[in-house]
From TrEMBL:
The chain crosses the membrane at residues 29-49. It catalyses: N(4)-(alpha-D-Man-(1->2)-alpha-D-Man-(1->2)-alpha-D-Man-(1->3)-[alpha-D-Man-(1->2)-alpha-D-Man-(1->3)-[alpha-D-Man-(1->2)-alpha-D-Man-(1->6)]-alpha-D-Man-(1->6)]-beta-D-Man-(1->4)-beta-D-GlcNAc-(1->4)-beta-D-GlcNAc)-L-asparaginyl-[protein] (N-glucan mannose isomer 9A1,2,3B1,2,3) + 4 H2O = N(4)-(alpha-D-Man-(1->3)-[alpha-D-Man-(1->3)-[alpha-D-Man-(1->6)]-alpha-D-Man-(1->6)]-beta-D-Man-(1->4)-beta-D-GlcNAc-(1->4)-beta-D-GlcNAc)-L-asparaginyl-[protein] (N-glucan mannose isomer 5A1,2) + 4 beta-D-mannose; N(4)-(alpha-D-Man-(1->2)-alpha-D-Man-(1->2)-alpha-D-Man-(1->3)-[alpha-D-Man-(1->3)-[alpha-D-Man-(1->2)-alpha-D-Man-(1->6)]-alpha-D-Man-(1->6)]-beta-D-Man-(1->4)-beta-D-GlcNAc-(1->4)-beta-D-GlcNAc)-L-asparaginyl-[protein] (N-glucan mannose isomer 8A1,2,3B1,3) + 3 H2O = N(4)-(alpha-D-Man-(1->3)-[alpha-D-Man-(1->3)-[alpha-D-Man-(1->6)]-alpha-D-Man-(1->6)]-beta-D-Man-(1->4)-beta-D-GlcNAc-(1->4)-beta-D-GlcNAc)-L-asparaginyl-[protein] (N-glucan mannose isomer 5A1,2) + 3 beta-D-mannose. It comes from Sparus aurata. Coiled coil: none annotated. The lineage of its organism: Eukaryota, Metazoa, Chordata, Craniata, Vertebrata. Its main location: Golgi. Residues 67-82 have a biased composition (Polar residues). Pathway: Protein modification; protein glycosylation. This is alpha-1,2-Mannosidase. Keywords: Calcium, Disulfide bond, Glycoprotein, Glycosidase, Golgi apparatus, Hydrolase, Membrane, Metal-binding, Signal-anchor, Transmembrane, Transmembrane helix. Residues 67-87 are annotated as: Disordered. Its EC number is 3.2.1.-.
Length: 496
């Protein structure tokens, strides 16, 4: 192979000598790399010298400024442009000096100080987000916390009561210890298989049992367990999930659990988490009537109703069981939206004609009309009535609208649904389009306690009557267990 092909820049007798500045693309690229490496090395050396800030300002920027001043003499025709260049260079010098000082300070900080700086930076971003219309659950308004009196620290004087109390606490501890051992962080424990399980009612939110048990742990003075649960909530309870949840179940289990834990203990983490979750539930109310969807994707904010619910209707017990928690969310967050959403539900219900004064279980959130005329004080309807009463009591008996709705509904239930069996047992039947179904489901048994709770708010001539009704319904429920052999045996075994 000819040498000339191996040495492409060797001059030949028949070719003119190459110009000193004429290079092929390969050589230009190599020179560029060498030059870039040299520049990088120079700058690296400058930045890592002990007094690099002075070196930068005294050498690099000073010389540039001198050159600028030389070019901007009285005879210069571009004095305005030169002045701008000088200001730009001065700003660059100032920014570099500031960056160098901050870098040195950061290198000298302890890890905990750096962590705190990161937290402060996040809080600053959060505040700026709030200023632009975002929500900030880390900077809630100040609320003076008042611990409820008599929650803990009292032992009953009666020995039998103390013994029963200790037994209940023992059962709670057994349940809690088993959950913690086999299903910690899951929504529930399957006792036979001893495995954790997470119901799809909560999407991919975890820890329903932990949040649900917080108030019980505190009231029972199981403070070690309460602290462990609090730690889990602070570190692991996450609502930033791309999942569809039941608005009703998440409200009564998670929002309600967090609120009660806050009111008992005063720990801010519970208030913050409750408000955060409440904010994520608000898109459920984006319907033509403001009656919320039953199901909501917490990330997209898209809602829908259960496919089996009477033509896409919302369910009375679900949309009617948001009032207590949402009123407290407004109080604790300073955001009136929560209260306005649930008060709007009342407005919609009050505008509707109610058959025989009764509330059907299904309501279409788009049309604002009742679905099937099915009325039940048990499943699908139950807690709506309970929340009307408790809303009045929670308001220190100032919520006159809630009181009126409750007692009128109770009167309609007594007139149209409450009956006696041939053996003298009082029960609450179900109503379907004017026809009674003479059955009372297990969930209706709460009504005995509800009626007793509201008896002292009834007109004086009704108080005794309602207490008798409450006792009769409770007796019917007791008999339904006592007359069922298997359930009765289990019940007797447990209470011994």
């Amino acid at each position: 192979m000819p040498v000339a092909t191996l040495l492409p820049f060797t001059a030949t007798p028949n070719r003119k000598s190459a110009s000193p500045t004429s290079f092929r693309l390969t050589e230009k690229f190599i020179l560029l790399l060498v030059f870039s490496a040299f520049i990088t090395l120079c700058f690296g050396a400058i930045f890592f010298l002990p007094d690099s800030s002075k070196l930068l300002s005294g050498v690099f920027f000073h010389s540039s400024a001198v050159e600028t001043n030389t070019r901007t003499g009285p005879d210069s025709s571009d004095s305005g442009s030169a002045g701008n260049d000088e200001r730009v260079l001065a700003k660059i010098r100032k920014d570099h000096e500031k960056a160098l000082i901050e870098a040195k300070d950061t290198l000298q900080k302890r890890p905990d100080e750096i962590k705190q700086d990161i937290i402060n930076a996040k809080e600053k971003v959060a505040k700026e987000s709030v200023g632009q219309g975002g929500k900030d659950v880390n900077n809630l308004p100040f609320v003076e916390y008042q611990r409820p009196p008599g929650t803990t620290g009292h032992e009953p004087l009666d020995p039998e009561t103390r013994e029963r109390r200790a037994k209940v606490k023992e059962m709670m501890k057994h349940a809690w210890d088993s959950y913690r051992r086999y299903a910690w962080g899951s929504n529930e424990l399957r006792p036979v298989s001893k495995q954790g399980h997470s119901s799809n009612l909560f999407g991919s939110i975890k820890g329903a049992t932990i949040v649900d048990a917080l108030d019980t742990l505190y009231i029972m003075e199981m403070f070690e367990e309460f602290d462990a649960a609090t730690d889990w909530v602070e570190k692991n309870l996450d609502f930033n999930v791309n999942a569809e949840v039941s608005v009703f179940e998440v409200n009564i289990r998670f929002v309600g659990g967090l609120l009660s834990a806050y009111y008992l203990s005063g720990k801010e983490v519970f208030r913050r988490k409750a408000v955060e979750l409440g904010e994520k539930l608000l898109p459920a109310f984006k319907t033509p009537t403001g009656i919320p969807w039953a199901l909501l994707n917490l990330k997209s904010g898209i809602g829908r109703n259960w496919p089996w619910a009477s033509g896409g209707s919302s369910i009375l017990a679900e949309y009617g069981t948001l009032h207590l928690e949402f009123m407290h969310l407004s109080k604790l967050s300073g955001n009136p939206d929560f209260a306005q959403k649930v008060m709007n539900i009342r407005k919609v219900l009050n505008r509707l004609d109610k058959p025989q004064g009764l509330y059907p279980n299904y309501l279409n959130p788009n049309s604002g009309q009742w679905g099937q005329h099915h009325v039940s004080v048990g499943g699908l309807g139950d807690s709506f009535y309970e929340y009307l009463l408790k809303a009045w009591l929670m308001s220190d008996k100032t919520d006159e609208e809630g009181k009126k709705m409750y007692y009128e509904a109770l009167q309609a239930i007594e007139t149209n649904l409450m009956r006696k069996s041939s053996s003298g047992l009082t029960y609450i039947a179900e109503w379907k389009g004017g026809l009674l179904e003479h059955k009372m489901g297990h969930l209706t048994c709460f009504a005995g306690g509800m009626i007793a709770l509201g008896a002292d708010g009834a007109p004086s001539d009704k108080t005794g009557h309602q207490m008798e009704q409450a006792a009769e319904i409770a007796r019917t429920c007791h008999e339904s267990y006592a007359r069922t052999a298997l359930l009765y045996c289990l019940f007797k075994k447990r209470i011994k």
